[in-house]
Design brief:
Blueprint lengths: L1 H49 L18 E3 L2 E9 L4 E6 L4 H6 L2 E4 L7 E4 L18 E6 L4 E12 L4 H5 L5 E6 L6 E8 L2
Length: 195
């Protein structure tokens, strides 16, 4: 009887530990998501005021560097708009762990060379809902000179975390991705330029 009581107490302690750990993780993730949402919103507001609007035709060249604007210590290259998810997000020019905590980041490529890849956390306020997108959904990227690039979702892929080359391969003009909640796969949205 004493052994059963001891085992029961151990199991209760272990269960309590896991419940408390889950609550702490939930609160941490919720706080990170909220902070990222607030920070991204502030940056998009500031960028929107600084980006010129174009009335005339413009020309870009594949070899051009994307212009940057530094806001709150982060160099941004674009605003990514995903109307189907009611998202308007800044895009950092450089992928770092710190930048990724507050906004999506360029993983590789450029809008000018039609091969940009953007990484984002799976926060609800960032890329956490991109698996809900459908073929034909509109995506726009506005660069820091006010040039607007229009895309349509072509396909949504599920990739392994180790498929780094696969992330950048293919004939898509825009790719953006995030990990799923368990981090076992990457939800990857492939887009083509809209006509």
């Amino acid at each position: 009887m004493k052994n059963n009581t001891k085992i029961s107490n151990i199991l209760i302690a272990v269960g309590t530990f896991f419940i408390v750990s889950a609550v702490i993780c939930f609160v941490y993730n919720f706080t990170q998501d909220k902070n990222a949402d607030n920070f991204s919103g502030e940056i998009v507001s500031e960028l929107t005021n600084e980006i010129p609007s174009h009335e005339e035709n413009w020309k870009v060249y594949p070899f051009m560097d994307m212009p940057e604007k530094e806001i709150k210590g982060v160099k941004c290259i674009a605003i990514l708009d995903i109307p189907a998810l009611d998202l308007s997000l800044p895009v950092s020019s450089v992928w770092t762990d710190e930048n990724l905590k507050i906004m999506p980041c360029r993983y590789s490529g450029s809008v000018y060379s039609d091969d940009i890849v953007i990484a984002g956390h799976n926060y609800r306020a960032h890329f956490g809902r991109i698996n809900r997108l459908k073929q034909g959904d509109e995506i726009t990227i506005t660069d820091m000179d006010g040039n607007i690039f229009r895309y349509e979702v072509d396909v949504i892929d599920i990739l392994e975390p180790t498929d780094i080359e696969e992330m950048k391969s293919g004939n898509w003009d825009l790719t953006f991705f995030t990990c799923n909640f368990s981090r076992s796969h990457r939800v990857t949205v492939r887009c083509l330029k809209a006509d």
